[in-house]
Amino acid sequence: MRRAEQTPEHAILIQRYLDFLRLERRYSDNSVKAAQRDLLLIINPPQQVTPTALKSILAQRHANGAAPASLARVASSWRGFFKYLLNNSVIEIDPTLGLKTPKLPRSLPKAVGVDALAALLALPLPQEFRFAQAHVLIELLYCTGLRISEALMLRAEALNGSTELRVIGKGNKARIVPVVDTLQARLREFVEPRQSHLLKHGRGQETSLFVSAKGQALTVRQAQRDIASHAANCGLGQHLHPHMLRHSFGSHLLQGTQNLRAVQELLGHASIASTQVYTALDFDHLSTVYDNAFPRAK
After folding, report:
1. Rounded to an integer, what distance in angstroms lies between the CA atom of residue 205 and that of residue 218?
2. Which of 98, 91, 99 is CA-nearest to residue 58?
3. Catalytic option among 147, 194, 247, 252
4. Residue 165: what are its φ and ψ, rounded to 5°?
5. Catalytic residue among 269, 285, 290, 296
6. What is the DSSP letter of 174?
7. Are 49 and 95 in contact (CB under 8 A)?
8. Is residue 272 within 8 Å of 260, Cβ to Cβ?
9. Residue 251 has pLDDT above 90, yes or no
10. Mean pLDDT over residues 229-250, rounded?
11. Residue 278 annotated among the catalytic residues of the structure
12. Cα–Cα nearest to 146, from 177, 117, 115, 122
């Protein structure tokens, strides 16, 4: 039995929403594609979709073995789509209101130990450009707490010895992060191997700070592979990926300062609740802060 197809009008509405995500919300290509897949699960025109129909789709996917995280993502895509339609007067009632998905277990990325990272970063830059660049990326991510996507948007001007970097984060929000002396020194050290690599491939004017084997802008996937490979070559003893470095930055900074608001600003979190989860604050620490700072606790 062939699956029913969406009407042309329905397809147009989905495309308009995907364009909204891409152009106005600045979603990545992967996020837009994921939203498109989720919306293609809905066959009926939006005006005819009911809460019961949506629950039925989720129930069927759950019966087919879909993970809770997958179901939560699907529901999130639907909520965004129908909210968009509601705001644009395409529908009058949001069918996702009251839609529930399985509760996700709280999972946090692991932080890398301070000593292990210090030992890795103390090593000289490798001769091979791919791993020299990975070394610089590791130091940058750990010293600034940037997301890998933010780091890969940096321009070559970052090599000019600035004491701060202006980055564009989620929601197209800009923030300033400081560049410590050791990172400045590492970036200066990276100037010559980067320029030699670009000239070798005829890409001397490439503006992206981090570049591929062919001298073009480095992708997230390439950066992830190179960071993991370099860390393994250096004997780190655990799989290293960019998000671990961001989490390590937040965790180690919080341990040293206990200034949650400062960590929130440096990580670029819109809500301090995100920072509390991200840095894995434990109840004992929160209780201590409360006891020491809140007048009624004394």
Report:
1. 15
2. 99
3. 147
4. -125, 140
5. 269
6. E
7. yes
8. yes
9. no
10. 91
11. yes
12. 177
Active site residue 243: yes
Partner residues linked to 176 by β-bridges: 166
DSSP assignment letter at 100: -
Beta bridge partners, 168, equal 174
How far is the CA of 187 from the CAs of 130, 147, 192, 220, 297, in angstroms?
A: 15, 18, 10, 20, 47
Check 17, 27, 84, 278 and give the catalytic one: 278
Tell me the H-state helices in the chain. Answer: 8-23, 29-39, 51-63, 68-87, 114-121, 129-144, 148-151, 181-200, 220-233, 242-257, 260-267, 272-278, 283-293
Reading the block at residue 27, the tokens are 């979603």
In the block, residue with structure tokens 């791919």: 130
Q: What does pTM read for this prediction?
A: 0.62
Q: In this model, does residue 195 exceed pLDDT 90?
A: yes
- Which residues sit opposite 211 in a β-bridge? 217
Q: Is residue 130 annotated as part of the catalytic site, yes or no?
A: no
* Residue 166 appears among annotated catalytic residues: no
Neighbours of 5 (CB within 10 A): 10
Query: pLDDT digit string (tens) for 34-49?
Result: 999 999 999 899 999 9
Is 201 annotated as catalytic? no
d(CA 161, CA 184) in angstroms, rounded, equals: 6
Q: Which of 170, 175, 201, 203 is catalytic?
A: 170
User: How many angstroms separate the CA atoms of 269 and 169, rounded?
Assistant: 9
CA atoms within 13 A on the CB side of 78: 28
Question: How many other C-beta atoms are found inside a 10 Å radius of the C-beta of residue 245?
Answer: 28
What phi, psi does 235 have (nearest 5°)?
Answer: 75, 30
Active site annotation includes 252: no
Taking the CA atoms of 228, 234, 236 and 238 in sequence, report the sign of the dihedral they define. Answer: positive
Main-chain dihedrals φ then ψ at residue 26, nearest 5 degrees: 60, 35
Q: Which amino acid is at 234?
A: C
Q: Is the pLDDT of residue 186 over 50?
A: yes
In order of 86, 112, 118, 152, the CA distances from 236 in angstroms are: 51, 9, 11, 23
236: its two tokens: 């780190």
